[in-house]
Amino acid sequence: MVKKLAVLAAGMILASSTAFAAEDSELKKFPIPMNHEKFELEEPDYLVGGIVTSVVHQILPISAEARFFAPHMDMNVQSSKFHYNGGPVSLKGTLGFGNDNAPEFIFRYSGLTLDYINVDGDGDRSFSAANPLTFGGNTFTGNVHSSDKFQYAKLTFGSSLFSILGNGVDWNIGLAGMYWKGTVTETATGQSKTKKFGAPLPMIGVGAHVQPLPVLKAYANISGLPLGSHGHFYDFEAGVRVSPVPLVSLNLGYRKIYAHLDYHNDSGEISLKGPFAGLRVDF
User: What predicted TM-score, i.e. pTM, was given to this entire model?
Assistant: First the structure.
């Protein structure tokens, strides 16, 4: 009796297995549509974009950025060869310069950053014989037209002090260079004088950034160097960077470049400050 029951049970198990196998085979032939959304967890697009950008940066950390910089620029110089009415010569107040756009280009590779800014401007003013303009040692009166070119380049190397979940603090060292060329022309006589100067400026800096979302980063950094009795120099920038799609970012912020230099009885002050908007592409 027991043997019969065992044989019967084995037969039922075998039949059930065969039936399930057949049913499974039929289901494969005629699949039943299923709503996979109930069973799959989809990653948000912004998270995927952030992961892609991070991976590409680790493999090939190169980026290029073009900015539209709209600064308020002024320069004040005073010496025995540059003065007006006993005081400094100012691009805006003395020579009548306005605010000009300053195209900016930034190239980054790993920890290296090369930044270049160019500003061209001009102005017109009239000077009396009682209060002439002294520019480069020459005296100018009547209607005077002025033009100038200012170029700023900065090469820095930076690295992270620490970073946690996209937030961190960085340091950098580098060298900045300023070059200025100015020309003043007396309209009536055609008398003209051109002067130019340049200065290399070493710098050290620190910056911080926070990343509340993979597509959004806020940052601020400052670099410069105190020059003791000869003055000081700094370059400050703060902004936000938004990445609507992987590898492409929009950068909005504010920047100020300032230098004050003293040498014997000569002094000069350069200020370049204002908002900017940039488009960055990571390769």
Answer: 0.76
